[in-house]
Amino acid sequence: MVRVPAAVSVPATALARRCSVLGSRVRRTARRAPRVRPVAQELVQQPSPYTRALGLTAVVLLGAWLGLLIVGNVRVPVGPMNTTMTLRPSLTGGTKINVSPLGALELDSHVAPVRLDVNVDQLDPVRAQALVDHPERLSGLQDEVAHDVEHGTLDLAVRSCVAVVSGATALGLAVYRRPRRALAAGGLALTLLAASGATAFATWNPDSVLEPKFSGLLSSAPSLVGNARSIVSEFDVYQKELARLVTNVTKLYDVTSTLPAYEPDPSTIRVLHVSDIHLNPASWKIVASLVKQYDINVIVDSGDTMDHGTAAENGFLDPIADLGAPYVWVRGNHDSRLTQRHLEHLKNAHVLDDGRALTVAGLRFAGIGDPQFTPDRSTAPGGGAAEELAGARLASSLRDQRAAGTPVDIAVAHEPSAARLTDGEVPLVLAGHLHHEQTEVMKYGTRLRVEGSTGGSGLRAIEGTYPDPIEASVLYVDRDTRRLQAWDEIKLGGLGLTTAEVSRHLPKENHPGAPTSPPPTSPPPPLSSSPSGTTP
């Protein structure tokens, strides 16, 4: 008989218990062990860091924009006006003041990815009537408006912070469903807004209101910012400028449907500069309207009024006699000698050529006709020696006039290359030919103003994708010093368009606090009898 060892003779129930304990330990170990997933599956499910960063950036920007759109505006009573202030994403920054239904004013107040929109919603009848009943309150209106603007700007900053953080956080929570990621989106949005605010503060330009851009009906009412002299003497800081704008808008509303005329300074001569009409009959109606609206004293045409210079075109010039202001003209490369002779016998027209000077509307002009006539292809277009010679003759005439004690205030030539040779001989020289406006102060102090096409390039207006704009300028010249105070660049939509913009500009020497500009310095005399200067 075989005996089983005592160690082996274990009851069945004990053995089952030990197996159960061992199995539990194995299962716990298996649960603690990390799960190994295939490498391909890991790569598909985990996006790259760049993708995650790009997605987070998109969520932050979209959430911040939605937050500003929904709750990022404040309603602020500014004087007698009810306004709404809003921050909007923008690539260029700046400030836009919407004066419905009159139009808008745009100011280059700062460079940042946010733009300040100020909507003038309506005129409060109670507060406006109080000003009418108590005119003495107008004296304190500017301080009141400045305080309202400051309070509204602070309120807008706080509300914008809440708006962008809330918007980015809410969108982050909806997209990621993780509180930590949502809070990161909100923090990044706040950082972005703070950086934008710092950039706006660093680039803040309080003098931006000196050169506003008008659109809509406001383009015909530049008196909203006062005349040229009041701009120089009174406009110094941004808040005060906004206050004055609101004050003037109040007065504008009070005049029912009639826009106020420009209020000229008694010592200001208004010159309308036109050029390159190129047989566009609509130009005469525009010129006549500008003469009436701006109370123009004299019109200067820097040439290319015609297109081919034929006798059949001479009848096109007849409206000049009824424009309401003297018409000073120089010959362009599309104007023939036949055109010039017709104008010399036309009522109200004053032809400049060969450097001869004449006084019109209190200003002394001198000019020279373009030596080339390109429609018959007898000469090659462009600057060249002929233009240099014409510019040198004009400069010589200007020197002779100054020596005789009758200095010229404004010189006129069609080609900018000829006009450049008058540098140092005259304060201001006008030109055209390029079909786009530009301004520069040349080496010896003479300011060159090149006008765009007042005819919208004439028959060439529809050659491009979009019609060329109709451009003209109003120059404000002091009657005592004969110096340019300011100019308005007027741009109208071309053929089939109805847009209108007016941009006001001031010479640097007319900005508040700027030193007085010395008169132009004459260039050194030429070393030989050949024409001096260079062609651009």
From TrEMBL:
<dbReference type="GO" id="GO:0016020">
    <property type="term" value="C:membrane"/>
</dbReference>
<keyword id="KW-0378">Hydrolase</keyword>
<feature type="compositionally biased region" description="Pro residues">
    <location>
        <begin position="515"/>
        <end position="528"/>
    </location>
</feature>
<feature type="domain" description="Calcineurin-like phosphoesterase">
    <location>
        <begin position="269"/>
        <end position="436"/>
    </location>
</feature>
<dbReference type="Pfam" id="PF00149">
    <property type="entry name" value="Metallophos"/>
</dbReference>
<dbReference type="InterPro" id="IPR029052">
    <property type="entry name" value="Metallo-depent_PP-like"/>
</dbReference>
<feature type="transmembrane region" description="Helical">
    <location>
        <begin position="183"/>
        <end position="204"/>
    </location>
</feature>
<keyword id="KW-0812">Transmembrane</keyword>
<feature type="transmembrane region" description="Helical">
    <location>
        <begin position="156"/>
        <end position="176"/>
    </location>
</feature>
<dbReference type="GO" id="GO:0009245">
    <property type="term" value="P:lipid A biosynthetic process"/>
</dbReference>
<protein>
    <recommendedName>
        <fullName>Calcineurin-like phosphoesterase domain-containing protein</fullName>
    </recommendedName>
</protein>
<dbReference type="InterPro" id="IPR004843">
    <property type="entry name" value="Calcineurin-like_PHP"/>
</dbReference>
<keyword id="KW-0479">Metal-binding</keyword>
<keyword id="KW-0472">Membrane</keyword>
<dbReference type="GO" id="GO:0046872">
    <property type="term" value="F:metal ion binding"/>
</dbReference>
<dbReference type="InterPro" id="IPR051158">
    <property type="entry name" value="Metallophosphoesterase_sf"/>
</dbReference>
<feature type="region of interest" description="Disordered">
    <location>
        <begin position="501"/>
        <end position="536"/>
    </location>
</feature>
<dbReference type="GO" id="GO:0008758">
    <property type="term" value="F:UDP-2,3-diacylglucosamine hydrolase activity"/>
</dbReference>
<feature type="transmembrane region" description="Helical">
    <location>
        <begin position="53"/>
        <end position="72"/>
    </location>
</feature>
<keyword id="KW-1133">Transmembrane helix</keyword>
<feature type="compositionally biased region" description="Basic and acidic residues">
    <location>
        <begin position="502"/>
        <end position="511"/>
    </location>
</feature>
